[in-house]
Structures are given as C-alpha cells and as structure tokens.
Specification:
single chain, about 525 residues, alpha/beta, Aminopeptidase, 18 strands
Length: about 525
C-alpha cells in the first residue's frame, strides 16, 4: 500500500472573475453583520441582504447559507455560472490575531464539509479583502483549512458498487484573490498547500494499520522524500544500532519479529546557521510488551507512532517551503513493542547509547527508552542549538489535560516561549508542566542508574520527561507529549475524529520564525 495521501487534491489560483467560475460551488466568506460581498455583483449582494434581513444568515462563526443562482433572477451581465453559491460565516472580527487565523482555518473546514455534503468536485473560494490579516496569512490559513477539512481515509475500503455512494471529496480547490495582492495570495496558498498536504500525510501514516505501516515504511517514505527534495536521508538498521550500543531501541524491539529503524533526515542551509534537532517517537504498534495492555482499545495503539509521523511530515513541509536561517535534523526511532519470547522483562537492565543503564520496571513505558537513544545520539552527533521531541508518551497527560492541550515540558524558558507562540498561531495549544529534582527522585533505581517508571502512578507525564532529560545534558530541550492530541483532538471543522496530524504545523511555525537562544538555562 502506498503511504502517500489516498487521492491527490489540487489547490490553485483562479484569475478570472468569480462569477465566471462554472464549477460545483462558489463560496464567499462573510463577516458577521457585514452584508456586502464587494465586487460579487448586484444580484448576489441583494440575495445576501435578503437572507440576512430574514435572519436566516448573519455571518456568524461557521454559519452557512446555500443557494442556487439559476433559481434566482439575475441581471444580464451579472449571471453566476457556478451551480451553487455558499455564504460561509467568519463571525465577528476579534482583537486576537491567533483567533482571526483560526477563524479562517475553521471556515475553510466548513466550506470543505459543505462541499462534501453536496458532492462538489470543483470549489472556488473568494478571499475576504477587508479581513484584518495580511494577504499571505489569509491565503495560507484558508488553504490549510480547506485541505485539512477535505481529508478522508478510505484506502482499505472496497469501492461501492454504486458511484452515488462514493465518499465525497473535493478534487480541485481554487482561490480568488478578492482584490488582495495576487503575488501575496499565491505565496500564502503555496505555503498552506505544503503544510496542509504534509499534515494529511502524517494523518495517513497514523491511519495505516500496523501490518502496513512498519519501521521499514518510515524509512522508505523518508528515502522517497529525499529523492524529490533537498533532504538527505539515512536509516540505521539493527546491526548499526548494535554497534552503537542503542540498548533502548534494541531492548524494546526484542519481542518483535519486525526489525527496528532509526530514520535520519537532514535539512541544510548554511554551516553558520544553528542546527535544530527534532525527534519523534515511531512506535508502529505498542502491545505493552510483557506488561501487556488491556485488549479493549488496543487497536488504537497503531497510533503510537504519531510523534514520528509529525517529525517526518514537518521535515517534508520545511523542505518544500524552504525555511531559512536554520539547519534541521529529524530523527525517528521506529520499532514495535511486542511480547515475543525474547521480549524485555520487568527487572531487566538495559544500557542506553552513551552508557547509562536503566532498570525496566514496566515494559509498557517503552517510548522513553527509544527516545533516550535517539536524543543522546542526535545531540552527540549534530551538536544542536536546541532539541524538540514529540511523542504519544503517557496516558497520564490525557488524565491531566484531556484531548485539548499538548503537554509541554522543557529545561529552557526561551524555547518554551517559542513553542507556546507557535502552537497558539496554528491552533495547537500547549500547557507547560513542571520539571525538577523532586520528580527526578521518583526514577531512582537501586540496581541501575535510573529506572523507566516511578514506583507509583503519580506525575506520570513529568517522570517520563525526567527520564528523557537524563539524556540531553545542558542542551536546551523541549518535550511535547501529544498522547491526548494526536488522535481524538478537540474536534473542529478541519480536524476529524481519529488522527489529527497534530505537531506538524507547530514545528513548521516554530522553525520558520526561529529566534536564537541567548543563553543556556538550566532548570
């Protein structure tokens, strides 16, 4: 099975008058209580005024009104060629710029949903000229919302016998500049397209069942990516890991018949630029190992590789849009965690890359074991200015934050500020949790340097981060626990149930506006 998105969707500029668009759906974005569509023509402006006067549509957030222009009297020369016209509400302008960005993504998702409901294949959206964002951001946010809201995954379903029952998906989106700078709109559209497609690719990776998305597929996708972009790729196999002493990845892999991979992608700009290291957990299936998980819901453990998917997709996006001023290295340690005859056992001791030993208390606390090797190896090899890891690491973060916020733990306030800002910009909020010696004591071991789980379940997300912190030294580091947001994230018009693709857009936003860290802080 192909790991790429199941069906290609295009998005491009439309340089004729909107009324000349002869496709399935023409959409106008309307702010609340502002009942005028600019250059849409007298007929559509009159219809909008009428539906607003009746109270059927006010332009409220995510409100819609669908009409058929062929049924409405239109002046000659003002005829609309589209089969349908959609008014989609933006709500009232908000003082917060992040809210304005999110409104555009939401309305893009709403348009995509409405298009699916009527089985539209060709959709034109006219950009709102007077919206309080610059043209690049308007186009970027809307393009993201359209592509993310249009996402479907049905690769493993047999096609229906009747074409009428075929799942609806827009095939071609068009944007009209609406009077904004066309060059700015084109720039934003291309950026939004690259980021939206990358996020959907991450969703695809997570949606594939674990027998089709294995560590080898991570490596294969990365290699194909390197052939069509400037990225450099290599993958360390089991033999290489044994030579390097990566006891964490190898230990977790012991019970599986599928060999592990450590996938490495490099994005290079200039030697003088700082290097940033991204590490994503690629647990393609997590049974819990000998500390077996309950059967109910175990099928969702194919999602335990969402951190690795986010890092891989973020590398794809930054290579396509061309992030300046930084070098970026992405590492994805990939393996299964199974309960085979050779599997790790509680009480076993492993030796990580670099020599630190760890007593295994719980084989289901495996993500930190593979991340520890990748973090230590990546920092030793690439000497990054900062490192960000992303992982579906603990169920405890779901207990604490639900499915609405990603947990953030870090040893550097400047890095925390940049990640929090990036998450706010793209609608992927984070909540910072503490670290400290009080929590670190919970992973003291009597027989090894550390142990992989505390004696009780208290502060599980924090003690997991304390484990990772053992392998980063003085390097500025941030850990994003996406266990609650990688799937079943707060449902929105552009975020479906299941895998959300969370983290891709946060990483791209953070890297795109990276500010050098002034000094190393120790927390």
């Amino acid at each position: 099975m192909s790991p790429v998105h199941t069906e290609a969707v295009t998005i491009q500029l439309f340089d004729q008058e909107p009324r000349a668009f002869a496709g399935d759906l023409l959409a106008y974005l309307v702010e609340e209580d502002i009942f005028h569509l600019g250059d849409a023509g007298k007929a559509l402006n009159r219809v909008l005024q009428q539906v607003c006067d009746t109270g059927d549509f006010k332009g409220g957030k995510e409100q819609t009104f669908l009409l058929y222009p062929s049924l409405a009297a239109q002046e000659e020369g003002n005829a609309v060629c589209a089969k349908r016209v959609l008014f989609a509400g933006l709500g009232k302008q908000d003082d917060a710029i992040h809210v304005r960005r999110e409104r555009l993504r939401l309305v893009g998702g709403v348009v995509a949903q409405q298009a699916a409901a009527i089985k539209a294949k060709d959709v034109l959206v006219v950009l709102p000229k007077d919206y309080l964002l610059d043209a690049v951001e308007i186009a970027e946010c809307l393009a993201e919302g359209l592509l993310l809201g249009n996402y479907r995954f049905d690769l493993y379903k047999s096609p229906p016998k009747d074409e009428k029952d075929q799942p609806a998906r827009v095939e071609r989106f068009y944007l009209h500049d609406g009077g904004l700078s066309q060059s700015a709109v084109r720039k934003g559209l291309e950026r939004g397209r690259a980021i939206g497609e990358a996020t959907n690719a991450a969703r695809d990776m997570a949606n594939h069942p674990a027998n089709y998305w294995t560590p080898a597929e991570f490596a294969e996708y990365a290699k194909k990516l390197s052939k069509r972009t400037s990225l450099k790729c290599k993958a360390l196999d089991k033999g290489a890991m044994q030579k390097l002493g990566m006891g964490g990845i190898l230990g977790v892999n012991q019970g599986s018949a599928v060999p592990p991979q450590l996938v490495i992608l490099e994005y290079r700009t200039n030697r003088k630029n700082p290097t940033l290291l991204l590490v994503g957990k690629g647990l393609t299936f997590d049974s819990g190992g000998v500390s077996l998980k309950p059967p109910a819901g175990m099928e969702d453990m194919k999602y335990d590789m969402c951190g690795g998917a986010a890092v891989l997709a973020a590398m794809q996006a930054i290579a396509e849009i061309g992030v300046a001023g930084v070098n970026v290295v992405g590492l994805i340690p990939a393996t299964e965690n199974m309960a085979g005859a050779a599997a790790l056992k509680p009480g076993d001791v492993i030796r990580h890359y670099g020599g630190k030993t760890s007593e295994i208390i719980n084989t289901d606390a495996e993500g930190r074991l593979i991340l520890a090797d990748a973090l230590a190896y990546g920092i030793a090899t690439y000497q990054p200015e900062a490192v960000i890891d992303m992982a579906t690491l603990t169920g405890a973060v779901i207990i604490g934050l639900g499915h609405h916020y990603t947990g953030l733990l870090t040893n550097n306030d400047q890095l925390a500020a940049q990640l929090l800002e990036a998450g706010a910009q793209v609608g992927e909020p984070q909540w910072r949790l503490p670290l400290g010696p009080e929590y670190r004591k919970q992973i003291d071991s009597r027989v090894a340097d550390i142990k992989n789980a505390g004696s009780d379940r208290s502060a599980g997300t924090i003690t997991a981060a304390c484990y990772l912190q053992e392998f980063v030294g003085e390097t500025p580091w941030a850990h994003l626990d996406i266990a609650g947001t990688a799937w079943n994230f707060t449902e929105k018009s552009y975020i479906p149930k299941g895998p959300s693709g969370v983290g891709v857009r946060t990483l791209v936003a953070c890297l795109s506006q990276w500010k050098g860290l002034k000094s190393v802080e120790k927390k």
